[in-house]
Amino acid sequence: MLTILFDGIAYGMLLFVLACGLSVTLGLMNLVNLAHGAFAMAGGYVLVLLVNDLGVPFWASIVCAFFVSALIGLVMEKALYVHIYRKSHLDQVLFTIGLVFMSVAAADYAMGSSQVFARIPDALQGQIHVFGIGMGRYRLMIIAICGGLALALQYVLVYTRFGSRLRAAVDDQRVARGLGINVGSIFALTFAFGSGLAGLGGALGTEILGLDPTFPLKYMIYFLIVVTVGGTSSITGPFLASLLLGIADVAGKYYVPKLGAFVIYTIMIVVLIWRPQGLFARAANK
Amino acid sequence: MRHFLKFAVGTAIAGLMAGGAYAQDTVKVGLVISMTGSQASTGKQIKAAVDLYMKEHGDTVAGKKVQVILRDTASVPDNAKRIAQELIVNDKVSVVAGFEVTPAALAVAPLSAEAKVVELVMAAGTSIITEKSPYIVRTSFTLPQSSVIVANWAAKNNIKKVVTIVSDYAPGADAEKWFIDTFKKDGGQVVETIKAPLANPDFAPFLQRAADAKPDAIFVFVPSGQGAVFMKQYTERGLDKAGIKVIGPGDVTDDDLLPQMGDAVIGAVTAHMYSADHDSAMNKKYVADFTKAAGFRPNFMSVGGYDGMHLIYEALKKTGGKADGDSLIAAMKGMKWESPRGPISIDPETRDIVQNIYMRKVEKKNGQLYNVEFETFKDVKDPAKIKK
Amino acid sequence: MTEPTPTAKLATQGILARARWHPLEFVFWIVAFGSIWFAPNKHLILTEIAWLALFALSLDLILGYAGILSLGHAAFFGVGSYAAALLAKHGIVTEPVLALFCAGLVAAVLGFATSFLMLRGADLTRLMVSLGVALVLRELANQFGWLTGGADGLQGVTMEPILGLFRFDMFGHNGYVYCLVVLFVLFLAARRLMASPFGLSLLAIKGNPLRARAIGIGVDMRLVAIYTIGGFYAGVAGGLLAQTTAFSSLDVFSFDRSADLLLVLIIGGTGYLYGGIIGAVIFKIMQDYLALWSPQYWPFWIGLVLVVMVLVGRDRMTRWSEPLRALVNRLDWRRTPS
């Protein structure tokens, strides 16, 4: 029972790291970026390449995965995404679905279509037992890293100058611009950081979710669910939503294996009908 | 308008006949597999094997040029049906081959029966497929073949309590049914049966459920390509340390993914018809050539493709190049040959494959993981068809 | 009765002109039906184009006319598809035309039921709710394996001849004619509907829901109605797929199908009814050609086309359709002597 809860939390944390970049871009620039999963996939493949083929240590590779994805994000933002901020949601959906198709085919071309895994250090394999609860070491690490990240993000958002600018820009872009905040560069940075986080999540998730070229398509729906259920106005919203969905998904599959993914889709619909702006959105937002 | 109609129909018929005349010196084989989507890895195995066979044996047989037309189904059965139909109607293929999943193979069966075109199943493993049209022949395997043998083995080797986990579609149901029936007959006990959804391979909750039942072993069937995730999560859950064994048909320790699975799979016991480690000169050459050409290790899906091409070539030799469905299928029945997997033949009654099934255990050889064969069951027919 | 103002007169004529047929439209349909004779060996792909066109048309009704963004339109398509296949398999309604109508009705009921979910929220919420509905239905279809065949698809369906006369032949000839006729009939109905006050009020809602409400248009009721109608059309399209292939699988509900559909409609252009049909022709031919040319990596090229399309500007890209669109919507109006 508690093992299930533990697994659910780990899964939820992973979802959070994967999806929180998406939530920020959506909230900040009103950009529906369906290609978010492609950055996660990039991070995953970076990890696999570094660890398996070049023999780089696991931890260093995880960090690399973050920076490589962030770099790709930055380049993509400057080269492509800037052109579509002002377009309609429909255009953004088309554009980013196009990117997803391209990334899937490109990954297939470069990496083959089989699932790949990174070799993980022995210290992270197997389970440890605390008070009779079996906890996977790898999942424990995910909870530690992702939990730490969530706290750090919250700190940055609430207590730093950058954070207040970002929040200002999310709340009212025009006024923020008027106050001399360079919204464009804030966005580029945030986009890069969000992509980096996705890459990190992709790298961490390789072991649990598996990695193959269809990754961006397979998990796109999950990211979107997290974002729509959590709302886009804060970090805590998506965080709680991720946890809720992670636990519901794992518990649902454990207790009623036949229903499968049914549980989380239903949760999403119910939440959206009840609160169209997301479960944890501030009232009267936008 | 009437004249136009006559003219149009006339040209169309002339066109069809011209196409027929052209088809006489070429034998076309439609290869309907998934090159994109969730089954892409299987499709690529088959494609690489077919290419290898054509490279080794040339493209001319019995005075005919063999032309393979590759079409992608994007892992969607509806597409498989439409594409097979186009291949039969427009391209006038003599054989439609491929079909990595059961739904695709089944969807095409009525077409094969109506058009009298040979449907060569190179991968899908549900027993019932070959019964759906008199023109279906199979070069892969059936799940009952290996499930029955693994059940016998388990009962003899001190495994008493088993939990089954299978993917929720026809082959999974086949594997589960034949394993449970046989295992119970041999005195074993199945404490829980779990069906995992086909599309979403997160096995963690299912494995937890299995672990909580404390069995001696888990019998598992997942389609080719999902085995690695399963084994990863099996290890992560510490089931290997808890002494719960993994047994099943060989799909779970797929050669394609085996090198990635980590040392925890060592000791997994499966029954299957092909291992890249199979000890024969022919297989050694096959594995070497295949790996060189394709860049990855051949798995059991690839030999289905390789033997499928062999069957077409040999059948054409026997008919002297006649490529209509009736002659081809007649020539294919009872065909016997040596494959990289060992001696195999096509059952003249059922058009299904008869082959050796090997018990294998995952071991490390020269630093790489392999399914090492330790026992052979000769000339196994599909058990589901013997009973009738 | 006072004399109507010139503006009002012009508006009336404009509205009437929308209902009038332009010569190009006749050409369009003559070419479409001509394909029965001049492209006999392309009937299989043409059949796919026909049902895809109808499916896109149904999305056009709700997106192009009512402005509802949906990423789960496959829900209706799938329900229609399973309904048609099941009706035939269990011999409940064996005559295909009648069964097709029933399939449409089932989907329409679903459309009606789910339309209330679509009334709330902005684009993204609607996108996700519609997607969620389709995914839930997919899981349900997977669950009720005894009814739907689960992940194996619904096997063993045999279709009776259309109207008891025309068999679904292997070359797909009759199937194509059947799909084309259904498409044409439903297109006529949609064209008539959209030129009616109901259609015009929808456009007003799309333009500005608040204003529409202010001038006394019952917004919610109309959205429910059009969503239901859209469901019917999509259900019929799904039914056509099931009937022409005698098969139905979980894939009919898939996300990819809804996404592809959106692409089809956007390529052709929204809001003038022909967009879906033209988009279906272009998309299918492009996909088929690319998949033949590069069976492994064709999605890359489709993706590239989309990306370029958005970057260059969708309006500019679909401007080629502008003459037709203008002819349908506006030219007649200008030409009409006032």
Largest sheet of chain B: 9 strands, mixed
Shape of chain B: globular
| Assigned CATH superfamily of the largest domain in chain B | Response regulator
- Helix share bin of chain C: over 70%
Oligomer: heterotrimer
CATH class of the largest domain in chain B: Alpha Beta
Helix tally of chain B equals 12
Q: How many domain regions of chain B?
A: 2
User: How many strands of chain B?
Assistant: 15
The shape of chain C, in one word, is: globular
What do the pLDDT scores of chain C average to? 83
Percent range of helical residues of chain B: 40-55%
Mean pLDDT of chain B: 85
**Pairing-aware structural class of the strands and helices of chain C?**
mainly alpha
Order of helices and strands of chain B: HEHEEHEHEEHEHEHEHEEHHHEEEEH
Strand coverage percent of chain C: under 5%
Structure explained in plain terms:
The complex is a heterotrimer of chains A (286), B (388) and C (338). Helices cover 72% and strands 3% of the residues of chain A. Chain A has 286 residues and is mostly helical. Chain A has a two-stranded antiparallel ribbon. The longest helix of chain A is centred in the first third of the chain and has 28 residues. Chain B is an alpha/beta fold. Chain B is 41% helix and 24% strand. Chain C has a domain of 221 residues. Chain C is 74% helix and 0% strand. In chain C, helix 4 runs antiparallel to helix 5. At the A-B interface, helix 1, helix 4, helix 8 and helix 10 of A face helix 2, strand 8, helix 7 and helix 8 of B.
Which key features would you list for this structure?
heterotrimer, A: mainly alpha, two-stranded antiparallel ribbon, 2 strands, 72% helix, globular, B: 388 residues, alpha/beta, Rossmann fold, nine-stranded mixed sheet, six-stranded mixed sheet
